[in-house]
């Protein structure tokens, strides 16, 4: 007489359940924890942030007091009042290479791979970096605004308009964060970081940050007007009650709309690209 032993349930069947980790995870909570880790690095090594902020303040002082007397604002108005909102927008762009460098370094040192091995959602790592960089940008923008107040810049509108102007500046920064995250995951070499640092300059200066597009040659003015940094700078000037340097054209009427739509388009393009680059990482 023989007996048959019932088959033992296969243990890998449990582990093979797709998406089990993600269903139990909380991307917002996990992203906040990872953001705390990134912020702790800034607290321990604050010099990159401090030097970046000092560089922006130096540009304000140089253009405001060294060149400002020779620059006229179309439609009249004080140049310092025109310059400061543009510098706020430019500061949102200048942080792009820092985000790229941080993501690239985490990837090269294997930190990103360690995160990938944990039972957390795939979006948590990039979201954590975005939250940390955004918090960094809030502090940097606050310091720049205080510095502007000390040298004579004044917003002349109400609290609601000023708050909306700040939100649009941070909205641009949030969109550009995904560009930096994607580039950091996709291109991890030193040469790529240097190339981005070089490219940020013409993008920032080929805008209405320092001068009005109406003072540029026709074709150059059109390019400057369609720059997302120009849209945010002009919208911030309008909402802060400062001279916009725009007397006619679509930017004079739709600056706030353009400053809302441009970052949305950038986010819709680069957030999926960043997610795809993260999923495509190999150990």
TrEMBL record:
Segments passing through the bilayer: 47-67, 79-104, 125-150, 162-185, 192-213, 254-278
Organism of derivation: Agromyces ramosus
GO biological process: response to antibiotic
Keyword field contains Signal: no
Pfam families found in the cross-reference section: ABC2_membrane (PF01061)
Membrane topology (UniProt): Multi-pass membrane protein
Name under which the protein is recorded: Transport permease protein
ABC transmembrane type-2 domain residues: 47-281
UniProtKB keywords: Antibiotic resistance, Cell membrane, Membrane, Transmembrane, Transmembrane helix, Transport
Similarity field: Belongs to the ABC-2 integral membrane protein family.
Entry-linked InterPro entries: ABC2_TM, ABC2_TM_bact-type, ABC_2_transport, Nod_factor_ABC_transporter
The organism's place on the tree of life at top rank: Bacteria
Localization of this protein: Cell membrane; Membrane
Single GO MF descriptor: ABC-type transporter activity
GO cellular component: ATP-binding cassette (ABC) transporter complex
